[in-house]
Amino acid sequence: MPSPTVVHDLDQAYLTIMQSRAQGTKWGLVPTMGALHDGHLSLVQAARETCDAVAVTIFVNPTQFGPGEDLDRYPRTWEADLAALEQHQVDLVFAPTIESMYPPGCTTRVRPSDVAADLEGRFRPDHFEGVATIVLKLFQVLPAEHAFFGQKDYQQCLVVRDMVRDLNLPIHLSFRPTVREADGLALSSRNRYLSDVDRQRALGLSRALAAAAARAHQGERDPQRLEALATQVLEDAGVDRIDYVALRDADTLVPLKELADRAVMLIAAHVGATRLIDNRVISVVASEAASQG
Ligand code: PAF
After folding, report:
1. 5-176 is classed CATH 3.40.50.620
2. Phi-psi domain of 168 (left: phi exceeds 0; alpha: psi -120 through 50; beta: other)
3. Could you identify the atom of ligand 1 that is nearest to the CA of residue 153?
4. At 69, is the pLDDT very low, low, confident or very high (cuts 50, 70, 90)?
5. What is the pTM of this model?
6. Any idea which fold 189-292 has?
7. pLDDT class for 260, splitting at 50, 70, 90?
8. Domain residue spans in the chain?
9. Which residues are CB-contacts of 76 (< 8 A; sequence separation ≥ 6)?
10. Distance in Å, CA 153 to ligand 1 centroid
11. Probe ligand 1: pick from 70, 133, 135, max atoms within 8 Å of CB?
12. 40 is an active site residue
């Protein structure tokens, strides 16, 4: 099996993609921070199915971590990541240094759209500025036709969607469903931090989302009651602190007066020293149509 070409240098990455594109190769890009799991690999798989060649970036981006967050202890699993990408027949792995992505004096930042303001934006104030900035930089260095992101980071998907629209970026986006363990836990690089006991408590997030979705499908339309139900499930599971439980419009993330066609419930909660997020789109009209049909 051919190993992916590993590139650390920005110019080399750019030239590789541009020269290959000139020959008609359609590139798919999967930006990651490494510590790869099956969620990332499902994005790679989707890229392989859609494109002729796949580039994966591995870069733990410092500008999206706030003071006191887990930048220093964020899992770095280079050998295992490379082995997984080789198995998935990735063509190019781009792993730049911090100094090459952010040389001295590199202070320009992307201000994300209003969709970034609340939820994660409230608890991690500069997070989406850092995400939008690095994603734009990666799009520039690796000018692929198509990029793939996981809906596990739902708000991030909307931030990237708006950036591509607002800055007229010539790239097509795909947002892929969250991959879960059999018991519902959403795959996340941060799950590695969880002890066995914490992992059990972490199941509260997916259970809370499932309970709210089930209640919505039974006819509950009041966002506050659905949020209260999810909060109760989280508390019963023994999570340590809840940052938010929010039912929002799935496109804009604005609060809802009543559960409408496409809503999303988003949760952020702390289990031990680990902060976890999860979400679930709740589509009552579609489910009602399905149950009638
Ligand atoms: O989702 C992630 O892993 C990161 O936020 C991303 C998109 C790779 C930017 O650093």
Report:
1. yes
2. left
3. 1
4. very high
5. 0.96
6. Pantoate--beta-alanine Ligase; Chain: A,domain 2 (3.30.1300)
7. confident
8. 5-176, 189-292
9. 34, 35, 60
10. 9
11. 135
12. yes
